[in-house]
Amino acid sequence: MAVPEDWMGARPQEPIDLHTDRPHAARVYDVLLGGKTNYPADREAAEQTLVSLPNAATIARQNRGFMHRAARYLADQAGIRQFLDIGTGIPTSPNLHEIAQATVPKARIVYADNDPIVLAHSRALHTSHPEGRTAYIQADLGRPQEILRDATLRDTLDLDEPVALTLIAVLHWLPPERDVHAVVRELMDAFAPGSYLALTYATADFEPQALQEISDNFESKGSHVRARPRAEVLRFFDGLELVDPGLTVVHRWRPDPVEIGADSLSDADIPLYAGLGRKG
Q1: Residues 216-264 pLDDT 10s
Q2: Alpha carbon distances (Å) from 161 to 95, 190, 205
Q3: Could you state, in order of their start, the residue ranges of all structural domains in the chain?
């Protein structure tokens, strides 16, 4: 059966080099989560990451767990019905829309990523609840106005109503010339009062040598990752009201009581900060 050209809000693109000869953040993350949408360069980078940071797979799973808990909070307790997830990565079920629409079937979700391979898999796996809507746009986080002006986004989300912006382990991958705080501020400025920002961000506060080795490894292969201290991560929430427990390591943010093994993890085990803030 032919696929409509506007299916999932993504129109056909000219063939693009997927650069499978070098690691990509989303695909390395997929390796660490035990996924299958990756290539030898990604697996090699994941192995090298595990040498520098042996609990990297645990970090990936805990990061994913924060996204699930934040999405449930937003849909169930905060009353959010619209989500914009930028840097969605390789789809791994349950995805954000599955979590949100389990509580609010009418929830609308737009996924955005700049990786064509993510687009291809999102077409197959990001299937909305029939009462809601799920769309995908190919977009670059470093160009927020292009995201905000996108016709598919505007057709799916009502920016006059609150939106939850989720930036899960993506901001630290932006190139150094991008002002990441300005990018987040520009996005949040476009959303109505009552909107939320949920993010996770890598830090070297606990394991500076390991994080430097990981950064150097990706730099040598054409990618970039920049860890930040807590004070710089906290700046993303300037002007927002942080939801308890504030900015903390991912596994300390409202952990599920039945989450196996989380109690035994120290702050140093998961060098990712997580937070959720509300726009007044």
Answers
A1: 877 776 777 889 999 999 999 999 999 999 999 999 999 987 665 566 7
A2: 23, 11, 37
A3: 18-256
Q: Which fold has domain 18-256?
A: Rossmann fold (3.40.50)
pLDDT in tens, 132-158: 899 989 999 999 999 999 999 999 999
| DSSP code per residue over the chain | -PPPTTGGG----------TTS--HHHHHHHHTT-S---HHHHHHHHHHHHH-TTHHHHHHHHHHHHHHHHHHHHHTS---EEEEES--S--SSPHHHHHHHH-TT-EEEEEES-HHHHHHHHHH-PPPTTSEEEEEE--TT-HHHHHH-HHHHHH--TTS--EEEEES-GGGS-TTS-HHHHHHHHHHTSPTT-EEEEEEE--SS-HHHHHHHHHHHHHTT-------HHHHHGGGTTEEEPTT-SEEGGGSS--TT-TTGGG--GGGS-EEEEEEEE-
Mean pLDDT rounded to a whole number for the chain: 86
Distance, in Å, from the CA atom of 84 to the CA atom of 96, rounded to the nearest integer, reads 10
Global confidence as pTM: 0.86
Measured distance CA(87)–CA(85) in Å, rounded:
7
pLDDT at 165 over 50: yes
